[in-house]
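=== Structural record ===
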Amino acid sequence: MPELPEVEGVVQALKPKVEGRTIQQVQLSDRVHFSFSEGKQCIVKQAEPDAFEQTLSKMTITKIERRAKYIFFHLLKEDAPYVLVSHLGMTGAWFVVNSPEDINEAKFQKHIHATFAMADGGYLIYSDIRRFGELRFLTKIEDHAPLTKMAPEPFDEQACDYFIAKCKLPKYENKAVKEVIMDGQVISGCGNIYATEALFIEKIHPARKVNRISEKRKRALFKTIVAVLRQSIEAGGSTISDYRNINGEAGSMQNRLQMYGKKVCPVCETATSQMTIGGRTSVFCPNCQH
């Protein structure tokens, strides 16, 4: 699943190509329409597909920004502001092309689910192989409660103190540290890949209870999480499976990962171990991490 650095890369690539442009027409895939007729919501949430297509037509994309793992497309139509919220799920990807046929990889071209024809020519396209992503049209961010509960951006000055305070709550203090730092209400945007890396760097076992880690070590861990996220942003994110920046560009952070997906510890050469924490597979060194 794309994490904060990957989403940041998508946003930075989209901004110069899409901001200020007007959507002429929107077309959703047959799969999206069919899912709605079956009482389900495939990709497009909280909106009937026909209404989604009609409403977004003639809207201007005034600004694109990232918040945690979400992309916010700020829109304007007849002086009224709106926002389209995008979550990439497991395999979501955005493309800016002259024609849908310009998408290089067949697997993404095959799974196009939202096509935004632009008034000045070309297309903004959302493709999603496994269809776990979301497109949610809102009048304002507050209309979708989960978006208001996200932790501060990890780069914000108050984010570390916020993290420390959250760790003291009964809800979190007896949980495994790996599960806690992947919780978007505790640290914004840190998922399995970068949680694994930060815990390895700080030599903390992923299953260690939060209340058995000193505040000094928690602060060091948070600092390392931020450093790893920044490093990944600079590397264009991690392309582990189906993550792509716009137009099929891959990141290179996967070449710098020390623990995620590794069979042998790069420090002590011990075979790595795995366990499930918070529903995700956690890889760690049983010798180095305590």
User: Anything to note?
Assistant: Residues 202 and 221 are 6 Å apart (CA to CA). The mean pLDDT is 93. The first strand starts at residue 23 and ends at 28.
